[in-house]
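Any chance you'd type out a single protein's sequence alongside its tokenized fold?
>
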Amino acid sequence: MRIATFNINGVNTRLSNLKVWLEDTRPDVICLQELKASTSSFPETALRDLGYHSVWVGEARWNGVAIASRHGMPVVTRRSLPGDAKDTQSRYVEAAVEGVLIACLYLPNGNPRPGPKFDYKLAWFDWLLTHARGLLKLDAPVVLAGDFNVVPTDADIYDPRSWITNALLQPEPRASFAQLLAEGWTDALAERYPHDPQWTFWAYLRKAWERDAGLRIDHLLLNDAAATRLTDAGVDREVRGQPGASDHAPVWIELR
């Protein structure tokens, strides 16, 4: 089973890019983030025409997450992350596909910092840590997939000096990500490329794509039951170079 995650940065704006990639690669499950589409404007029919059944949580202009499957309708288990009932941002959806529980998440960016956006990022990460502990204990394979908006280490960015004040590189979110790994989650891309970090994001500014000035912020984390089935992982980086592309590239894993 191939499971991919892709921050599409506007699902309707980049629908043609998404279609080309799906037709070329045919992942079994795709997790999308930053839909920037209300619940009613998600392109469900267009994805169904490609053979995908979708579940999603939309939000006009910002955020939004979706899980689409070629193996029937995903069975939704959650449409929000537990932690704060007053939090209305659409950043989490969780569903089962073919016996694998998949959580699609879009963690807050946190900029500018210091300030309320960075505080919200840290709070959201705490909610994720708490919920993930329960998922980690499940006997079924579990995948946490999405844009975590954290560069785990200085090796996961082309040059940390130019991003040193950015929320993606701060000690607190890095510590939260490291805690996920310490508690038992496997970072699939790092497992596959331990000495050759793979970029997943290239900013639109300063010709970052042309200079290969990338970052690794899109991750697939696996519990033990999923990690033992991992056979491969990678980044479809050529998607980032297409006209009108998202500033992220799709990241994928293969599970036996």
